[in-house]
Write a structure and sequence with these properties.
Blueprint lengths: L1 E4 L14 H9 L3 E5 L10 H7 L2 E3 L2 H7 L2 E3 L6 H4 L7 E4 L7 H10 L2 E4 L14 H18 L21 E5 L3 H12 L3 E6 L2 H11 L4 E4 L2 H10 L2 E4 L25 E4 L20 E4 L2 E4 L9 H22 L1 H7 L1 H4 L2 E4 L2 E2 L2 H7 L6 H9 L1
Helix pairs in contact: 1-2, 6-7, 10-11
């Protein structure tokens, strides 16, 4: 199989879908790899490294999309990339379709098979291809939030860790999953007073057993969120419903409860955001203010630490890319129910129930879509 790796074109996105080591692995399995010129240059993975691994170098993205049977990316395809896809071709990348009807329609129109990293599952009920970037984003959320709290950045001028004689800042993390727990760990490490909210009592118990008195746990309700907004210097939105749009947990009216210059970091922005006032921003222009509250809503947050993120992501995606290449897309999906859960669009049909519900579109079960196509 010919695997194509285009250069990412989203604002300040330097990650790449396949490292030279990954290319070498695929080539060792008898496949061919075609990488767009300078696809990894932004993180020190220049063309010479891919050539040494045995890959070919394409002059531009058009050449990659025209030749490849399997396209391996990082971020959701932009409109011009969607239009380059074709029937019989497989796209393997993050999609985040629930809040993006334009992308969904373009992918349906392409006739391609589109597998989303964020809905691939594992035996433990986890999301193994989302987890690495959730770990990065959770840790970055506190780092970026702490910067936004600086007065020069528009914040209230609070140092999260405080100093002797001055109380530390308060960090409220809404969501106790991978993002939330990683955010809480970094905030605690900086010396902040941290509360994590979740609706799962079992998860709260697990977190309490891990961190004890170092971390406050709170059952998430409207009342609890409102009380935390009054206290918080930094609020991190870390709520995920796999494949679906994120629930809006903080309304604009609720911002009035917050101290001027406080900061909201919405890690759920890829799925539409969990604050009513959230809108996607970029690394070039990451923040804006609503009613005196600073919002950080960068939609590709892990791209800010692109080298670390690339290696963390490709460590997780490579085994699945190898399965798709070795077996072919149809067989790989048939053999692995967890990979099948990643199938969002096939031959013009939406094949993930949560995505279809969010977009208010007809849903066709993934196996039914594949069987109909085979027939």
């Amino acid at each position: 199989m010919l695997i194509g790796v285009p250069k990412e074109i989203k604002n300040h996105e330097y990650r790449v879908g396949l490292t030279p080591a990954g290319a070498r692995e695929l080539i060792a399995h008898g496949h061919r790899v075609l990488v767009e010129h300078d696809a990894g240059a932004g993180i020190g993975l220049d063309d010479a490294l891919y050539l040494a691994a045995g890959a070919g170098i394409a002059a531009d993205a058009a050449e990659v999309f025209a030749a490849a049977e399997l396209i391996v990316k990082v971020k959701e395809p932009q409109p011009q990339e969607c239009r380059r896809l074709r029937p019989g071709q497989t796209l393997f990348t993050y999609l985040h379709l629930a809040p993006d009807p334009q992308q969904a329609q373009l992918l349906r129109d392409s006739g391609a098979t589109c597998i989303a990293y964020e809905t691939v599952t594992d035996d433990h009920g986890g999301l193994p291809l989302l987890t690495p970037m959730s770990e990065v984003a959770g840790r970055m959320a506190v780092q970026e939030g702490a910067h936004c709290l600086q007065k020069a950045a528009g914040g209230s001028g609070v140092l999260l860790g405080g100093v002797p004689g001055v109380i530390p800042g308060h960090v409220s993390v809404i969501g106790g999953g991978v993002v939330g727990l990683n955010a809480a760990r970094i905030a605690m490490g900086m010396g902040a007073d941290v509360t994590i909210l979740d609706r799962s009592l079992a998860r709260l118990k697990q977190i309490d057993e891990l961190y004890g008195e170092r971390l406050n746990t709170l059952y998430s309700s409207v009342d609890a969120i409102e009380q935390q907004l009054k206290l918080a210097d930094l609020v991190i939105g870390a709520v995920l419903v796999p494949g679906a749009a994120a629930p809006r947990l903080v309304t604009r009216t609720m911002l009035q409860l917050m101290k001027p210059g406080s900061v909201l970091v919405d890690v759920a922005i890829d799925q539409g955001g969990c604050f009513e006032t959230s809108r996607p921003t970029t690394h070039e222009s990451p923040t804006y203010s609503v009613d005196g509250i600073i919002h950080y809503c960068v939609a590709n947050m892990p791209g800010g630490v692109a080298r670390t993120s690339t290696f963390a992501l490709t460590n997780a995606t490579l085994p699945f890319a190898l399965a798709l290449a070795d077996k072919g897309t149809a067989r790989a999906l048939h053999d692995d129910p967890h990979l099948l859960n990643g199938l969002n669009i096939h031959a013009g049909q939406i094949t993930h129930e949560a995505v279809a519900r969010a977009l208010e579109q007809h849903y066709v079960p993934a196996r039914d879509a594949l069987q109909a196509d085979a027939a």
